[in-house]
Amino acid sequence: MQEADIDAIVAAATGGDDLAFARLAQRYRPELHVHCYRMLGSLEGAEDRVQETFLRAWRKRATFEGWEPLSLLERRLPPGFERVVITVEPGESRCYDDADWLDALVVLHAGDVVLEGSSGLRQRFRVGATLCLTGLSLRALHSVGREPGVLVAVSRTRSGSDPKKAGKDR
Fold this sequence. Notes:
The protein contains 4 helices and 9 strands; from the N terminus they run αααββαβββββββ. Strands 6-3-8-1-9 form a 5-stranded mixed beta sheet, with no helix packed on it. A 4-stranded antiparallel beta sheet has the order 2-7-4-5, with no helix packed on it.
């Protein structure tokens, strides 16, 4: 689906077109399912959460006011989750440490960042990019824009973490 197609389908779905809504659900179901599975650790739990999410979206479709960038900085975290904010200054690099990103949903909150793989290949990401870096063979993160690259990672509180910090920033 092209972006213009998605906008037209969203407009139809918010107007009550159930076939348009089904097309959107079909488009986004796999990504949402993977995210829910990673957060819940259960296939059945993930499928239930996906169904609940689409049911809620259908019921509230008339209130949809357009796309908003995902921001994990302004949101209060539920118990059992923690947030890590990593800033890479313009022109600077940061060695990749998988422990910083373990099972985290990562959003590029500001700046432009290039991820460098251990093979030397590079991929650039811009503000609003949503990533899962766990298990990737990465070497470094580079801030390539004029402003710092700010990455916000949210994950389940790790075992051994202080339970009083659950739902807090780390």
